[in-house]
TrEMBL record:
Pfam families according to UniProt: NUDIX (PF00293), WHD_NrtR (PF21906)
Membrane is among the record's keywords: no
Alphabetic keyword roster: Hydrolase
Record organism: Candidatus Falkowbacteria bacterium GW2011_GWE1_38_31
PANTHER family associated with the record: ADP-RIBOSE PYROPHOSPHATASE, SLR1690 PROTEIN
Residue span, Nudix hydrolase domain: 13-143
PROSITE patterns registered for this protein in UniProt: NUDIX
Domain of life: Bacteria
Molecular function in Gene Ontology: hydrolase activity
Protein name (database record): NUDIX hydrolase
Matches recorded under SUPFAM superfamilies: Nudix, Winged helix' DNA-binding domain
InterPro entries registered for this protein in UniProt: NUDIX_hydrolase-like_dom_sf, NUDIX_hydrolase_dom, WH-like_DNA-bd_sf, WH_DNA-bd_sf, WHD_NrtR
Statement: the UniProt record of this protein carries the keyword Phosphoprotein: no
Amino acid sequence: MSNIIKKYEYAVMATDTVLFALDDGKLKILLIKMNKKPFVDMWAVPGGLVRGDESVEVSAKRTLKEKTGVANVFMEQLYTFGNVNRDPFGRVVSIAYMALTPNIDMEIKTTKDHKEIGWFDVKDLPVLAYDHEKIVKTAVSRLSAKLEYTNIVFQLLSKEFTMNELQTAYEIIRGEKLDKRNFQKKILALDLVKKLDKKTTGQAHRPANVCTAKHEGVVNVEIL
């Protein structure tokens, strides 16, 4: 990398977004495959430079949509990554965001400047460009921690779900089994979900009550 001509004379800002989804019993993130030296064939979280006329939040939403086709998902600022040598093209400070979606089957597409796009299990990631491994680890840790004191998990679930599906989401992200009776008792006591007048159908096991979240947004509440 020592022979790379630095592109930026002064420090610039960028945004990078770690988009999470649950699929097949795994926590996954969306990555794009690079086609730019020195990161050709390496994967990265979607991101880009902040324009002079936009906020960092607008930049994060714009670059996520431009690089992946994904829009209208829950997003929150994660952390600022400012290691001096994190980008070989110059002094780039990245303001990272964490995003969550309940829909892993959405249409995704990337730009002609990238080779591929795809979902990856956070426990089995390819080699990542820049310092994106650090960004992803920070996002996974933050998501897991926020399960303890917020209802953020509902941003990963469909509008309608069962209590078993809710518990499974916690177990996947936290990497540990939870006692079914205690977990469901705590969730109901916190008044976070509303049981609908319907049950699951077409499944091998006994029909289960269908629920929905009582809050549309993320609120602070002690869960675990």
